[in-house]
Design brief:
266 residues; alpha/beta; 7-stranded parallel sheet; 38% helix; globular; binds guanosine-5'-diphosphate; binds magnesium ion
Length: 266
């Protein structure tokens, strides 16, 4: 994982308590008492912890500072050449690649498009994009949970996009870390599918706060689910009052035109 996502910060982890109604153990078997390691020898002394935190903070500042510099350079170059770059973010399986292939099939005769694909492993998504006839570069991040500005810069060297084109960047499936890493895009677009639950904007607020647009995907499945569309939009707007919202189905094409119109005006 990355240095900024919090996995290196045990002090940021909060373990909640059971509600009282769940505390009683009525079963005949006795409850297992797991050892509590929280104050054990595995932890450093307070002085060591402060030193570790300072070192971590410095690493984070260095990583994000360097990333932001390069992201600004990417943005400057993309804007200079009239390339609209969008950073598509979602959890795995929300339909980013499906939306891209449907979009590219609708757009490719009118507009020159390119795709940078981010995944931990495999070339699968780049191959799905290339099947539409559009050029795609796959970036495999290995253990990394997000794309960064350097990866996009390197992919752009390989991709050689034309002036005034459209660049879609499909980030690694993750609603957490990509919110922190500016790639130089014009806008982040967060995709949430209706199978994921309407509470996700509240649970993963940073990515919804950082996005200009939320696409609610897989609306063809709504008749089979208990998904409250109005509640989901209200949750997203509680986090980001300015967020725009589109509803569509990447597989049936319902609502796709609203997305194509959005692309046109941006
Ligand atoms: N029913 C339905 N399935 C979809 C839709 N969009 C994507 N899927 C399916 O969701 C799965 C994951 O899609 P994919 O595009 O690979 O998601 P990604 O991991 O975000 O790129 C695939 O089985 C898609 O066919 C949609 O609008 N409706
Ligand atoms: Mg994908």
């Amino acid at each position: 994982m990355c240095t900024t996502c919090g996995c290196g910060h045990p002090e940021q982890v909060r373990i909640g308590a059971l509600p009282h109604s769940h505390e009683a153990n009525n079963s005949e078997k006795s409850a297992v008492k797991f050892p509590d390691f929280s104050h054990s020898q595995f932890h450093s002394s307070p002085a060591e912890q402060v030193a570790q935190q300072k070192r971590l903070l410095k690493v984070e500042q260095d990583v994000l500072g360097k990333n932001n510099q390069l992201a600004n350079l990417n943005r400057h170059l993309l804007q200079k050449h009239g390339i609209l770059a969008l950073n598509l973010v979602s959890s795995p399986g929300s339909g980013k690649t499906t939306l891209l292939t449907t979009t590219l099939n609708a757009l490719k005769t009118q507009r020159c498009c390119y795709v940078i694909e981010g995944d931990q492993q495999t070339e699968n998504d780049a191959e799905r994009i290339r099947a539409t006839g559009v050029s795609a570069i796959q970036v495999n991040t290995g253990k990394g949970c997000h794309l960064d500005a350097q990866m996009v810069s390197d992919a752009l060297v390989a991709l050689r996009p034309q002036e005034d084109s459209l660049l879609f960047i499909e980030n690694v499936g993750n609603l957490v870390c990509p919110s922190e890493f500016d790639l130089g895009e014009k806008a982040k677009v967060v995709i949430l599918s209706v199978t994921e639950g309407e509470d996700k904007p509240l649970k993963y607020p940073h990515i919804f706060a950082a996005s200009q647009l939320m696409i609610l995907n897989k609306i063809d499945l709504l008749p089979y689910l208990n998904f409250d569309v109005a509640q989901c939009i209200e949750n997203a707007k509680r986090i980001n009052p300015d967020i725009e919202v589109l509803q569509l189905s990447a597989t049936t094409g319902e609502g796709l035109q609203t997305w194509l119109d959005w692309l046109d005006k941006n």
